[in-house]
């Protein structure tokens, strides 16, 4: 099932409970061709409503009265999956706009993929439900040193419901002074750099501390996105999103963490990233 189909189904299920219409669902659900089809459709919508909005409080989370806004900050050299993974999950949230925010809206290179922001630092909504920074390599280091990026993050974080990151995006938050006194995680190779920015490094796939939610490296962005979806729309709806994207990982190798990959592979990668990590650790911490 395509994500748009899923959203239409959720909208129809919400409508069965007298909720507000879905703002970003552009195509109406086709009318059943017969009375039997109508009855079957009504039954399906009843089941959807019972699964995702069994009471008024949950219904208000699934279909918020106020449109929600999520901002994914895009910058040259970021790792594309850090952005695309969460976007794929959050695009299924109802009455929610997921913005890709760039400095000036110009197309940018994200590790070989071209990303075209749909809004800018100036035009991005102010009262965000989620502010998210993806990670990367040299591009992330440049973002950590970029006054315009850091100023934008500080300004929007002041009113955002959740301030979040994927992978080394946490270090951009740190350089902006937004992780001081918070537990946080990032890519394993740069984990200890978090302490340089006043954060408490915490080894976990996803770390929540008050309204800060950070994810470990790259693929953890999907786990993180589902955690955020549950905070916004309830666990049942987040489970539906997970099933819709069939996120049921079964990697061919048990090598996704240093202690699993073994010392030879781990040290090879650590050595490869050593200059980058040293550069990140040399970025001045906010006073």
Describe this structure in words.
The chain is an alpha/beta fold and 287 residues long. 44% of the residues lie in helices and 15% in strands. A hairpin with a 2-residue loop joins β10 (206-209) and β11 (212-215).
Short overview:
With 287 residues, the protein is an alpha/beta fold. It contains 12 helices and 11 strands.
Describe this protein with a few key phrases.
287 residues, 2 domains, seven-stranded mixed β-sheet, Rossmann fold, alpha/beta
**Count of separate DSSP helical elements:** 12
CATH topology of the largest domain: Rossmann fold
What number of domains?
2
* Percentage beta strand: 5-15%
Helical proportion? 40-55%
Topology readout:
Blueprint: H1 3-15, H2 35-52, H3 56-62, E1 68-73, H4 80-90, E2 96-102, E3 108-110, E4 113-115, E5 119-120, E6 130-133, H5 138-144, H6 147-157, E7 162-166, H7 169-175, E8 183-184, H8 193-196, E9 200-201, E10 206-209, E11 212-215, H9 220-233, H10 235-244, H11 258-261, H12 263-281
Helix pairs in contact: 1-2, 4-9, 5-7, 9-10
């Amino acid at each position: 099932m395509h994500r748009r189909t899923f959203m239409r189904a959720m909208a129809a299920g919400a409508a069965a409970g007298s909720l507000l219409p879905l703002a970003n669902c552009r195509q109406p659900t086709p009318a059943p061709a017969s009375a039997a089809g109508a009855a079957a459709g009504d039954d399906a919508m009843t089941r959807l409503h019972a699964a995702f909005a069994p009471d008024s409080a949950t219904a208000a989370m699934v279909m918020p009265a106020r449109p929600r806004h999520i901002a994914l900050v895009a910058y040259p050299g970021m790792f594309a999956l850090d952005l695309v993974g969460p976007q794929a999950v959050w695009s299924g949230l109802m009455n929610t706009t997921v913005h890709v925010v760039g400095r000036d809206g110009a197309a940018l290179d994200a590790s070989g993929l071209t990303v075209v922001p749909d809004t800018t630092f100036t035009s991005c909504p102010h009262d965000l439900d989620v502010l998210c920074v993806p990670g990367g390599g040299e591009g992330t280091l440049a973002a950590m040193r970029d006054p315009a990026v850091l100023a934008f993050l500080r300004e929007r974080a002041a009113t955002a419901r959740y301030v979040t990151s994927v992978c080394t995006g946490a270090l951009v938050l740190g350089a902006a002074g937004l992780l001081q006194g918070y537990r946080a995680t990032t890519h394993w190779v740069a984990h200890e750099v978090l302490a340089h920015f006043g954060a408490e490094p915490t080894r976990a796939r996803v770390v929540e501390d008050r309204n800060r939610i950070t994810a470990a490296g790259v693929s953890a962005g999907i786990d993180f996105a589902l955690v955020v979806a549950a905070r916004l729309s309830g666990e049942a709806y987040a489970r539906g999103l997970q099933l819709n994207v069939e996120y049921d990982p079964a990697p061919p190798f048990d090598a996704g963490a240093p202690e699993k990959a073994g010392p030879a592979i781990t040290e090879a990668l650590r050595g490869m990233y050593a200059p980058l990590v040293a550069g990140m650790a040399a970025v001045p911490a906010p006073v």
